[in-house]
Amino acid sequence: PCSSSPCFSSPCSSSSCSSSSSSSSYPRYITILIILLFCSPALAWQTSGVSSGMLAALKSLSLRRIFRNPSSLSSLPSSSYMMMAGLSTASAVATKQESCAAERMEALRGGGAEDLQKKLASLGQGHLFEGLGDDQKAQLLEQAAELDSQLPGGLEGYVTNARKLLKDSKEGVNPYEGFLPSVPQGEHLKVGSEDFEKMEKIGKEALSQTGFVLVAGGLGERLGYKGIKVSLPLYDALESECFLKLYISHILYIQEKFGKGKKIPLAIMTSDDTHAMTEKLLKDNNNFGMDSSQLTIMKQNKVPAIKDSDGHFAIKDGKIETKPHGHGDVHTLMHQTGVAKAWKDSGVKYVVFFQDTNGIIFRSLPAVLGVSASNKFAVNSVCVPRTPGEAVGGICRLEHQDGRAFTVNVEYNQLDPLLRSTQQFSNGDVADPKTGFSPFPGNINVLVIDMDNYHSTLASTGGRVNEFVNPKYADASKQAFKSPTRLECMMQDFPLLLSAESKVGFTTLDRWICFSPVKNNIQDAAAKAEKGLPAESAGTAERDAMALNTKILQMAGAKIPERGQVGTFAGIKLEFSPMVLLLPSFGTSLSDIKARMRAGADIEMTSRSALVVEGDVFFEGKLKLDGALELRAKPGSSITVKNLQVTNAGWEIAEVKQDDPSASVTQAMRGYKVLKHETRSILAESEQKVINEA
Question: What is the pTM for the complete model shown?
Answer without folding.
Answer: 0.84
